[in-house]
Write a structure and sequence with these properties.
mainly alpha, 2 domains, 0% strand
């Protein structure tokens, strides 16, 4: 006989209670009232306000993002799950702010970083171009994390990765772009022309990486066609 986990049951009831509370509150509160609650001395009220404002006004939720991210780290409030889910739903409207958070807070928690990365993945093409710009600028040290996001994003990220391959001034980023296309396999077939041009580069490292990527993309395409 299967036994339910009391801890899991409590989390589900807490989640349901939070959702119901937000639904009731959102019928009564304006955006201005939610913003006022962001200044409350009570962290639970601030967390609810951040979640409520994001749910009610995704595009205008910028003022709530700092508190929303803080709430993701506050397991003692019991709102971290809801805060992470809401961040994913509004991320497409706040890509620059999320990227800036990754750049500025190198020592952030795994939960916060994971929620930001999930939000960027779901943002799709809206995030791909800014991610590449970030890699070429202040976020060059984030190649691992932002590379994960681009790979998880998949095909919608390919045009931005191709731009990085062909236009990045730093050959290391061009190498990285070729590597990402190779990792994507057959779904990166639209990047083959750029990879073939990169395979004729004067840089030996880039030539080698581009050739490996071409093999991965073409081999994957052949396997998919069998």
């Amino acid at each position: 006989m299967l036994r339910s986990d009391p801890q899991d049951a409590r989390q589900k009831w807490t989640h349901l209670a939070v959702v119901l509370l937000l639904l009731v509150s959102s019928c009564k509160k304006s955006n201005e009232q939610w913003r006022a609650d962001l200044d409350s001395s009570d962290p639970y009220v601030r967390g609810l306000a951040a979640i409520g404002l994001c749910m009610q006004s995704p595009r205008g939720a910028g003022p709530a993002l700092p508190e929303l991210l803080t709430t993701i780290d506050r397991s003692d409030l019991g709102l971290e799950r809801e805060a992470a889910q809401v961040l994913v739903s509004v991320g497409q409207y706040h890509v620059p702010a999320l990227l800036q958070e990754l750049v500025d807070e190198e020592l952030m928690s795994a939960d916060r970083k994971g929620a930001i990365k999930n939000a960027l993945v779901v943002a799709g093409p809206e995030a791909a171009g800014p991610i590449v710009a970030c890699l070429e600028g202040p976020g060059s040290f984030l190649v691992g994390d932002l590379g994960d996001v681009l790979l998880a994003m998949g095909e919608p990220a390919i045009p931005a990765i191709v731009d990085l391959l062909e236009q990045a001034r730093d050959v290391r980023l061009r190498n990285f772009a070729a590597y990402l296309l190779g990792r994507m396999g057959p779904s990166a077939r639209s990047g083959l022309p750029a990879l073939k041009r990169a395979a004729e580069s004067k840089d030996e490292g880039l030539r080698g990486m581009a050739l490996q990527a071409i093999i991965s993309v073409q081999a994957g395409a052949s396997d998919a066609g069998r």
